[in-house]
Design brief:
single chain, binds calcium ion, TIM Barrel, eight-stranded parallel sheet, three-stranded mixed sheet, about 10% strand, disordered N terminus, alpha/beta, globular
Length: about 325
Amino acid sequence: MGGRLQLGPVPLLEKMQKTLPIVIAHRGASGYLPEHTLEGTIMAYAMGADFIEPDLVLTRDNIPIILHDIYLEYTTNVQEVFPQKVQSDGHWYAIDLTLSEIKTLSVHERTDEKGQVIYPQRFPVQKGSFTIPTLSEQIERVQGLNTSTGREIGLYPELKEPLFHEKRGYDLGKTVLAVLKQYGYHNKKANLFLQCFEPSVLQKLRFEEKSSLPMIQLLGPNEWNIGPDYEAMLMPSGLKTIAQYADGIGLWLYQIQDERDHYPSYVVNPHIVHDAHQAGLQVHVYTFRKDELPKYAHSFKALLRIFLSEWKVEGVFTDFPDLVVDFRKTHFAREHA
Ligand code: CA
């Protein structure tokens, strides 16, 4: 077996990483507490994350709330509370409920279509009493803690399914932008990254709404059928186009290294990190979970070593912010002392 010389990151990248990689608390400290709760936000904050990630959808009365899906049934008890609100496709949509209705729901660990828990080792599904927060409520917690601790922790909001919202007559991007502005996030110095899978939405916010907020273009495999041709966007010419409106890309980790084969064939896009840096884009990678490791990583630390020390990406989304903060302390302390 050869080394990593041919397919690993090119030496030029070593010069690119001038600052510490950022730790993005994916849906809060979601490895420990139900995703997208204020409890998870505060835990992630205390664990030393640099950014907290809220996924955002709108309520019927146009309030941005923190929820991963446009549906409510995977993380709440909506079936029991509002059985009559189910749509003909079997889903309960957040946009069909007002904020006051949504506030009566209780949030639990994520389950699938059949009600099975996704991560059985995490917070027990029937326990605790959690509710869906609004974006404002989360910002006020984070900004309040920034004042009381003297730290500067940022937000990393994701606009969820903006085209779905548009079809229902709502403008998710503009609505979120207005709330962010109200809390002082309004220019390129904001301690925030706005992320979205839909390029046309980020372009509109950048060019038509004239927003200068830091933005991240999320990318995924075309097989997910989200809409855009991500494979074309990953080409050097596609990355140059992204750099016209965004500051970085958010990549699925299996787009860099796949789990289906052994080294070196698991390196699926050997040039992507380098190409993105060449285009002036940061690379943030999702999602690092100690209870969902790719086959090529024998431990969570090994996985972090591959992406942070070898690929040298600028940030990782993780359900376990404490573990990434610890890794960063031990592996980057000397270099950045
Ligand atoms: Ca997200």
